[in-house]
Design a protein that fits this description.
By secondary structure, the protein is an all-alpha fold. It folds into two domains: 233 residues, no CATH class; 34 residues, no CATH class. Helices cover 81% and strands 0% of the residues. α3 packs antiparallel against α13, α4 crosses α5 and α5 packs antiparallel against α11.
Length: 365
């Protein structure tokens, strides 16, 4: 009788193991399918941005690009026909959508490292630094008449702010979050002072609300091109340095012992964060941009079983949040930033509800 009981227990255990393997295989298949679809969507958006740029080129290149660009507009017209809207036939909608898709990838991608290094406030700090950059950019454009992208000025100021924050953190004896608080409040204070002074000095109107809360209308063609180039660069850097970033994220001291240039990789991470923040600021605004770096990662960490799976799931959650938020914003005439963040928080709450695990249970794979 005991032998039968033992055989039954072994059979039940084998069945359980088989079911877990099948469940894991199905889970991985769904995740990889989602990542593949996201990659295809991002490729399509990069194609649109490229065509939007090349259609002004002389000769056959410009003519062919214009022809393919019109196909995107035709697709938008059909979408408007089926959805009962009047937005997808316009290029600015596609530029905003392309920008959203790209920052929906690189935001959670970089944010995964920030969250697991307990550096979530870095994104918020650099967003305020970028706001100061926008303020200086607006003033510079008003004084000089320079017509280049404001994002370029914001990017330079934000990158310098990121390096300054890194230096301040390494050369002060304060607690880790003190330099962050100083840079956050200081950069926003400078931005507000420049904007207030500029309103009384320059002749052009300064619509700062779009940069604070996000707006589809501030996504320009040059801004979308800059975001596309920077997004490809960030993805390439993360893929190439994946193991190094992973090592430093979970055991910085051991990375130093292994003679990794920890200072260089830390600086690279904060500069990439600045790049992502500047790109996402157009859609989400200064006040909400940090949410795209943190909330999808927090949601993914509740259900993921490894660091790599956290990366995959955070990107997928970021895409769902961005696309859903843009859909709500367009359909209900609401700010895109708030719509995206609310959807991301809803996904996070669902993840917390269905999982009782903590982030500390991750496997380093």
């Amino acid at each position: 009788m005991s032998l039968d009981t033992e055989n039954a227990a072994k059979t039940s255990e084998n069945t359980s193991v088989t079911e877990r393997i099948r469940s894991k295989s199905l889970r991985e298949t769904i995740e990889l399918t989602g990542i593949s679809l996201t990659a295809m969507l991002a490729t399509g958006m990069l194609l649109f941005i490229g065509l939007d740029w090349l259609r002004d080129a002389p000769g056959g290149i410009g003519s062919n690009a214009e022809l393919l660009f019109e196909q995107f507009m035709l697709l938008g017209a059909w979408l408007d026909f089926f959805l009962g809207t009047n937005v997808f036939r316009h290029p600015f909608t596609w530029r905003a959508l392309a920008t959203g898709v790209l920052v929906g990838i690189v935001g959670p991608l970089v944010g995964t490292y920030l969250v697991h290094r307990q550096m979530a406030l870095i994104g918020e700090t650099l967003a305020h630094t970028a706001f100061a950059g926008v303020a200086f950019g607006l003033l510079f454009v008003a004084v000089t008449g320079w017509t280049s992208s404001l994002l370029l000025v914001a990017l330079i100021v934000s990158a310098l702010g990121a390096l300054g924050l890194q230096w301040l953190t390494e050369h002060t004896d304060s607690y880790g979050d003190v330099p962050i608080a100083i840079v956050l409040t200081g950069s926003f204070a400078i931005g507000t002072l420049v904007i207030s002074w500029g309103r009384d000095t320059v002749a052009i109107p300064i619509d700062i609300e779009g940069f604070l809360f996000g707006s589809l209308s501030i996504v320009t063609a040059s801004g979308a091109r800059l975001v596309s180039v920077l997004s490809v660069a960030v993805i390439a850097i993360v893929v190439y340095n994946y193991k190094q970033f992973l090592f430093i994220t979970f055991d910085e001291q051991a990375a130093r012992v292994a003679r990794l240039n920890v200072r260089w990789y830390n600086a690279l991470l904060v500069v990439m964060t600045a790049v992502v923040v500047v790109g996402a600021m157009q859609i989400l605004g200064v006040i909400l941009v940090a949410g795209l770096l943190v909330i999808p990662v927090a949601a993914a960490s509740q259900v993921a079983r490894s660091f790599r799976e956290t990366l995959y799931l955070s990107i997928l959650i970021g895409q769902i949040s961005v696309l859903g938020g843009l859909g709500v914003a367009i359909g209900a005439s609401l700010p895109p930033g708030g719509s995206i963040i609310v959807i991301a928080i809803a996904i996070y709450l669902v993840a917390v509800f269905v999982s009782d695990r903590s982030i500390g249970g991750l496997s380093l794979h």
